Amino acid sequence: MSANTSSFASFRPKPKPAQELSKEPQPHSQSDRTSKQKDQHRRTSKSPSPQIRETDASANKPYFSDRRGDEDVLRYGTLNRYEIPPYRRYGHGFVLGLPLQQKIDRELSTDKKIYVSPATRRRQQRLLTDKSTKRSGERALRLVKAGGDASDLNKDYVLLSATGKRKRHDSDTDEDDDEGTPEFDYRGIEEPKSAEPADPDAQYESDVDVTFDAEATRTNSRLARSTKEHPEDVSGWLALIAHQEAMLKLERPSAELTVSDKAHLADIRIDIYGEALKKIGKHPEGQLQLYKGLLKEAERAWEGAKLASKWKDVLVKHPESVELWMMYLDFVQSRFTTFKYEDCRAIFFKCIETLSASTQNISPTGLLHIILRLTSMTYEAGYQELSVAIWQALIEFRILRPAEDATIDAFEMFWDSEVARIGEPQSKGWKQYSPSGEPASLEFAPLLEKDSSDSFFEDFKKRETEATRQLVLPGRTSDDIAEDDAFHTILFDDVAPYLKLVPEHVPSGLLVEAFLCFCGLPPIPKSGAHQQSWWSDPFLQRHWSSSPLNEDESSNFVQSLNHFSNCPSKSFQMTTELLFDQSFSTSSIGLGTDFIRQLLKLVASDPSSEDVFGEYLLAFELRNYPNEAFKTAKRLLKARPSSLRLYNAYGLVESRLGNSDKADQVFRTVLAMQPAKSENPTPQLLELLDSWVWDALRRGERNTALWRLVSPHGNPPAETAQSQPDETLVDSLRTRLAEISEQALLAQDHATAILSTSLSALLLYLTSSYDAPRALNLHSHLSIWFTSHATTYSSSAELHAQFISRLLTFHTTHAPIVKPALTRSTLEPLLSRFPDNTLLLALYAANESRFSIDDRVRGVMQHTALQRTEERSIAGWAFAIHYEMRRGELAGSTEHSIRALYKRAVESSGKHCPALWKAYIQFELAQLRRLQESRQLQNKKPRRDGKKSKAEIRVEDARQRVADTFYAGLRNLPWCKEVAMLAFGEAEDVFGDEEKWRVCRVLVEKEMRVFVEVDDDAAWEVAREKGWTV
């Protein structure tokens, strides 16, 4: 370097003496000059000696610099949390000791480091950390409409650039006076001013982010002020707590919260919950609401021991709350570190005993829900004979008892006689029991014997799987199978404690419904709030199954609708018509269809049972025993000849079997038997008329359907193909249906009002040249009524939405010209109210499948269904995953998008759902097999350097994903034996012997039922020889 060339060091300012610091000009007042600035300056100079540092620390200063560090960091690897004093965030990002020009940079800062940036400079948002990665970094522009000038009309050219002289102002002293220089000169080196767009014909739109952030901040201030002014208002506290998520998302790179974000949000909410509990006073209902929210958030923030202690304190204060007990049972059953089968079962018994002894009577539906959870956990832990025996004993003792005064001692005699029990072959029920009856002899195939040629785990898999498949029904002392298994034979003492859990006032129909839910079968067509809570409980969903689809020559829309309707988990309001379309799969339970059929026969034939169980039996036989359904219907109608529900079910059986003439005869005969002038037609009569009309519509006979509709007494003319009904007849029926609907609404009979409105809309549709908008407008009147009576989200409103979707489906499949926008605009408001209804979702997805480029289904599910993941039902997640799988790669669906949905589902409401975890593990297994069977891997030769190829690395990653998913499922489902057995079945190639041995130890430690002994001396001897550790 030459002598006349300055080095960069020459530009560095020389340090000034310490005494001259006060003489420098200050940009702020002297009070703004803090000791922190002096300390920053001292750090740029030579470090003082330890003696000087100690002297400075002891001076009268608010702080000192500790350069020795914290010993706890070396001891624990991080700060000791117990020595950190409690603090509250304050200062909006400014740091105590730093000047006001410095502020914490939230984008660059992490949980380990804090970055400081100038507060006055607005940081440019980075592309990957923007709130929405799809949003452009530039501000939106809008065109400015030109003013109307008459002289512009005479121009026959387009002015590309304005080169006229600019107007000069008094302040423009530095401007160029050259008239020929254009305003936008390409030779300029300065960019346009940020406040003005480069295009003179455009203006900037307003900043949406700033508006949203300001609105969220104002809302938070308003809610906080409301809690101070009205501290006793629980709704105000809950609104403030719910709004904290929106506050946390401010300036976040993504709308999705990470695990650490959720934990931080939980801490914030817990503090607010604690403050609210102190200030609301003695308000039992409000305290329950707050405690439920507090304990829900504490699951993310507190350790298990602290949370368990808090649960005990809360239950002592509110022992009569069913919802709190259900949440506590969720906590106990899903806590992997402390779960043991016997301990959990004891807590279930304590829960029922406490609720039964409380002054507030527990509802039968709430009690049966707890028993459902208990028996389901018993079944999944491997004690399947006991769980089935419990339901056999409950139904026999409560429904089929010989007399009202029959004692439990008499039932003990019946059980110990070992005659055929309900569901088993030749069973007649306790009513028909005779002491001289012969004990039942159930036939079992012999179990597999130990094969010395098999390895330890191969033998375990074969014998355990075989025993699990065969040993489902409760064993008897006379059985010649599993004689040494103490859990196979179920004595009266085993089921007696469960009989005492169900009081006398529980309706028998609810008991049968609970058994159907236990078996994973569809609910009965009877609206009730308990159906939603039972069938949507994640703990009760053990298996997902889809019925096979018939590849017919139907239209693309019909095929798409069938595919999307074939969702593995369904959620909707069950009706009689929908019941006869169900698959009645028994894959989630080890019981065969013969057992279910025999049980339903005994229940339906009981004189005290409801007609709906006979209807359910016919629907079940239609799917599994179609040739026997006619005989069963004939027997049921002979016992109950006046049941309109059973006649309607029989007509639907013939209609589904393709016997349209027989179905027409059944409907016509029953309608003709009714009184000519019925003042108040029953819902069963309207349902019968509805089934008759739709029987013709499904065959495409619209004119026949119209004649049937205007002939409610079953007397249409013989020739209905060409002629049209008289206008007077149509008007008379329209008036009558309107009266029925109005009277039903006054009587709060929503089912009748919905049926009559549906028939009115169908009448208008068939008589107005199939004008769907007019018919839908008639439906909207009933929707407005539900809204005005605060029942917009009720089960009745959801049922009404399903009737609307049925009309839309028919119109879409039969109308010559269909406007997809009509279906879309009608369904979107309904989906906003019922985002988990799979009937509405399937129709919407089928309608939008023709426009996959827009992908509105994803958008609707993202904004309505998947937005609040904690409130999302399992059926909603199942449909989202099912839809993503159906779309295919051409439409943008990949294994990564499907995996992302699975992860979101198991991190939210599906965290403890066995069916969801099994499907997730099987999905990862399918991806692993696909990679293993790929040609790229099979045809690949080993590399010379011994390194793995990319294909082999992908296989290893897929194998690790299977293992990670399996272990995550095992941690969240500590009671579910079937998930643990996947390590020995479908995923056996993923795990080594030592890992399988550890899974066996988990089965033993959690006290699950294992048929093959894995805890004896022989098993431990094998483990020691192999070197397996626990």
UniProtKB/TrEMBL annotation:
Repeat as UniProt keyword: yes
GO (cellular component) term, any one: catalytic step 2 spliceosome
Annotated compartments: Nucleus
Keyword Ribosomal protein: no
PROSITE patterns: TPR (PS50005)
GO biological process: negative regulation of RNA catabolic process; regulatory ncRNA-mediated heterochromatin formation; RNA processing
TPR repeat residues: 644-677
Gene3D superfamilies the UniProt entry points to: Tetratricopeptide repeat domain (1.25.40.10)
Basic and acidic residues compositional bias, start-end: 21-38, 184-196
Keywords: Nucleus, Repeat, TPR repeat
Protein's name according to its UniProt entry: Uncharacterized protein
UniProt source species: Cochliobolus heterostrophus (strain C5 / ATCC 48332 / race O) (Southern corn leaf blight fungus)
Phylogenetic placement of the source organism: Eukaryota, Fungi, Dikarya, Ascomycota, Pezizomycotina
